[in-house]
Amino acid sequence: MIFKICAGFALSLAAVLCIMPGFIEYLKKLSLRQSVSEYALADDQKKAGTPIMGGILFIVIPILLTMILCYDRILTPEMSVIPAFAGYGLIGFIDDYLIAVKKNNEGLRPAQKFGLQVLLAVIFFVMYRNNADLSIHIPFTHISLNMGIWYFVLVLFMFSGASNAVNLTDGMDGLAAGVSLIALIPYFIICLVQQRTALCVFIPSLCGALLGYLYFNKKPARVFMGDTGALALGGVLAALAMITKTELPLILIAGVPVIETICVIIQQVSVRTVHKRVFSYTPIHYAFRLKGMPEVNIVYMFWIAEVVCALLGLWMAFN
User: Fold this and answer.
1) 295 FRET partner, CA 20 to 30 A, in 24, 68, 76, 303?
2) Under a CB-based contact definition with an 8 Å cutoff, are residues 128 and 80 in contact?
3) Are strands 144-146 and 135-137 parallel, antiparallel or unpaired?
4) Collapsed DSSP state (helix, strand, coil) of residue 20
5) Do the beta carbons of residue 209 and residue 61 sit within 8 Å?
6) Residue 262: which of 278, 274, 275 has the closest Cα?
7) Is the per-residue pLDDT at 36 higher than 60?
8) For the ranges 57-66, 84-93, 99-108, 272-281, which has the lowest average pLDDT?
């Protein structure tokens, strides 16, 4: 298994590093370029025109490598992570395509996006319930709470919440990719302990592809992951949490995206109810820009924060 783990990581990293330059040029020819986010600051106007959908490579390459290296494990329950990963990537791809064609940031309407997320949650739930119990473990106790059909509500909440949380985090060069890479490491350790062979190959393959993508996404970014990558990364984190029965530790393991989302919710509620801002700007990483902090420093700060969250989440998962 050690050979497959190392091969998955190394081959994914090498494949992305080799293919991405040509892929970026191809995206430019198709005019699949970024329009400025509704959340973006004035200083980010220059990022308009950067190719999007870079997430396609770190979705396709790890999936193909995992299926090749673990061909004998394709039909095992743990491999249901891959349809969730690809499915949420497909939703993001549709959104990115509409954005690129319309040259605005509307894309899929919220109702359409949520409807597709519900559909995928139903599919994953059906696959999941045939191979696992519908209970969640309460950390630091010996209590397992059987949720029955309400587990579907949890599935929907986790998938839509995680995918949108990573999407909100994707606002600065290298931010979402670095945070997601860090969040995946605890799940690799958990899968090693639980002896989930296929996932022990898939996660390093995804990490290698993300590391390769980061080379092109570091400031100044030559490509963005788009909703294609962001929704896929959120979806895979939620799926890993459910397969490994670490639903509650996910809140800490994906701490930075969770904090980003909570800040946006607080801001929205405050503005709509008392017409006042709690934060100077949300998503919260932009607030640090307004205070004059360089973008690179903010990204590094959030990476460090995610390391702390990931370690705490890993500790929580084993208790």
Assistant:
1) 24
2) yes
3) antiparallel
4) helix
5) yes
6) 278
7) no
8) 99-108
